């Protein structure tokens, strides 16, 4: 474990490199000028915004118990543009409406919990926070517990209400997991991120002194097994920001860095811990949103510190070599439904608050935040990962989304699903030999923007969203799978090399379709590639006849076609079919 008095490290963002294209013929001088102008514009969009305290990733080691004020502690200063505008530490309500809504939301959430939520929120309260995050690993949870020698005393509801003298930190003295275990390097990264002085929410709590919701209004329903214990806690045991939520995000993002195969599930569980704190009656929505912001900033800070580079590297290698190859158990995975995770996560970004500031403020990506996606998108560079965060950021205007750097608007669930928009020509170079996401990945967002997608390398990229990016798609190598009718955006497509595979009944190309001699189009006998513009054909077509196709089925439709495939391969048990070319179609006929 590193020295906790480590010097602050100045972090330098990677230089921005973008390739900008033009739809018109330009001279070399004009092209260079266009690139410079476009590059400068994109650099301005992605550049970090410096707060009064500087950048959190540079200042995080100042979050110490002797520092509590915004002038001395970045963890407190994070909220000067948000919570500090609603509440003052002397008890003054600067925005009574927002604060009353905060308590009203606490009341409504805490009184409508299900029996499953009562159990889960109780366990969340009692278990050590890092241990509690293990459930986000789903089927890998049991192998992790075994290989990390993880321990807890709490699994079920007690038989009766806990006594008033119950410890507020019930897991004290129990090591949640073993740094000397088979997964010790992964455990070490979590410990380095979540269990050191700089990870604490306590210093900000001492400054803001915001009263717990169950003490503000008796209608807030406290978990009946914990009421006596909660009532007995000191009056200076404050609400904002939530410590459990802060530690959940620190732990969840550390685990997600080491094991990005569960990235979105782990951030979903991190957000659910905050919800559990409201369910149990312990915290308010503003407090758990504050915990998300602080925990995210801490995790990015630790991962950016060069002194932790080896710890992070070993954690990733450890998880990939041990946990990834564990026998996945059949235990219930509470986070297997993508749409449910998305719905829950998006709600917990705001807890139903309406915007109170401008809803058109440009997104800001904090300095160093791109490191959170480093293992999730290993084939993207740092600038591209910033672009992912920028284009998936949550809309502006909400009560906890106005911090100066932008931590409050990072939507890490959507960021885990790829770009939200292509700002410029985006080159994706995936090397299948490296395995993992380099070999195969899925982008699930609806991608907009004026840029283009250029696919290089041997890996496979699947596009699941109803995309509208305008710059077109160029496949130079590897495989692009179109799993949505609008997966290929609203521009043209050029298949120079590699493979385009259709995984939807019909896939549109809104512009022209050009296939070179080294390109391969792969589709089933009942699918359609619908080209709105002109088509020029060459290369190879592979048709998989898994079932009997409809009579004279149209495989490709064009405004006007030129050229033919050099080779057509038909697989499956209906090999008696062949293709027929017309001016506007490629048909499958007997």
From TrEMBL:
For the keyword Signal, the answer is: yes
Recorded hits in SMART domains, A to Z, give: acidPPc (SM00014)
What SUPFAM superfamilies does this protein's entry cite?
A: Acid phosphatase/Vanadium-dependent haloperoxidase, Pectin lyase-like
Keywords assigned by UniProt? Signal
Spell out the InterPro entries in the cross-references.
Autotrns_rpt, PAP2/HPO, PAP2/HPO_sf, Pectin_lyase_fold/virulence
**First and last residue of the signal peptide:** 1-21
The UniProt record lists the Phosphatidic acid phosphatase type 2/haloperoxidase domain at 189-303
Please verify whether the record's keywords include Plastid: no
Name by which UniProt lists this protein = Phospholipid phosphatase
The species this protein was found in: Lentilactobacillus fungorum
